[in-house]
Amino acid sequence: MNTPLTLTPGTRPDGTARLTVAGEIDLSNSADFARAVEATEGRLLVDLTAVDYLDSAALAVLFTHADRLELVVRPLLMPLLTISGLTDLTTVHTTTPDSAHP
Prior knowledge:
STAS_dom, Transcription Regulator spoIIAA, alpha/beta
């Protein structure tokens, strides 16, 4: 059973746009994810700490916007982001859902 996707836009204390994502990102909802990322201009912190699964459609969105993204992820997603090469293109912080975010 898929976990529904929740997208919550916001702003960090320093004024940088933030998108908090929860659930699973896959082909069925990657267009919603892309629209949320594209709704902001400039730097965007994408908090993926509540994401348990993402597929190649989600990776495609992240790669398309890698030059302006900063990601926060749980260690669970790091192997995928590293193997895909995304960690070479953007800043990725690892954390747990309960810890403070950058």
